[in-house]
Write a structure and sequence with these properties.
Layout (H helix, E strand, L loop, with lengths): L4 E6 L1 H18 L5 E7 L3 H8 L6 E9 L12 E2 L11 E9 L3 H11 L5 E9 L12 E5 L5 E2 L15 E4 L6
Parallel strand pairs: 2-3, 2-5, 5-6, 6-7
Antiparallel strand pairs: 1-9, 3-4, 8-9
The structure holds inosinic acid (IMP) and magnesium ion.
Magnesium ion (MG) binds next to loops.
């Protein structure tokens, strides 16, 4: 697996340091509030696990599944998403946790879907953001890192369901895609 890596873009210690900063920001912004965290599976699972442990607030953690990639490195433009929510959103302070904001298609669909359930507030936290790739106008309220315009894996992010378990964010050698 490690032979497939081209460059490590965000090393483990850099990610952990940034997560501590994001946690401190959230603890301040949501002080005295009760948070409903909604993780977007599957890419968020490692980021959310680390971020949740530096959040010092009462919170409920739920998950929704969304995908638009399938087995490729370019978005299909169509979002497959859970269409039902089995928890209460109305009147809650909701924070969506995503691995990466790319074209913006996934989060646009997800945000509209959750907004229909009338949360008191709705914000987005993403580990990575590739602003150059945006097809729909979308900004996150909390961003870990701006990511170079390159396909990346690791720390939850996959290529064909592999590499999610790498402890850092990295690019892949071109031959991996062929
Ligand atoms: P969007 O709908 O194009 O914004 O894409 C968001 C989703 O695409 C993310 O939740 C990821 O699952 C996936 N994605 C986008 N860019 C990458 C990447 O560089 N590596 C791995 N997955 C990615
Ligand atoms: Mg994802």
């Amino acid at each position: 697996m490690k032979n497939d890596i081209k460059d490590i873009i965000f090393p483990e210690d850099v990610i952990q340091k940034r997560i501590a900063e994001l946690g401190a920001e959230l603890n301040k912004d949501y002080a005295d509030k009760s948070l409903l965290i909604i993780g977007v599976l599957k890419g968020c699972f490692i980021f959310l696990a680390d971020l949740a442990r530096v959040i010092d607030l009462e919170c409920e953690i739920r998950f929704l599944t969304a995908s638009s990639y399938g087995f490729s490195s370019a978005s299909s433009g169509k979002v497959n998403m859970d269409r039902e929510i089995d928890f209460d959103v109305e009147g809650r302070d909701v924070l969506i946790i995503e691995d990466i904001l790319d074209s913006g298609i996934t989060l646009t669909a997800l945000r509209a879907f959750i907004a229909k359930h009338k949360p008191a507030s709705l914000k987005i936290c993403t580990l990575l953001d590739k602003p150059e790739r945006r097809q729909l106008p979308m900004t996150a309220d909390y961003t870990g890192f701006e990511c170079p315009n390159e396909f990346v894996v690791g720390y939850g992010l996959d290529y064909g369901e592999k590499y999610r378990n790498l402890p850092y964010v990295a690019s892949l050698k071109p031959e991996v895609y062929s």
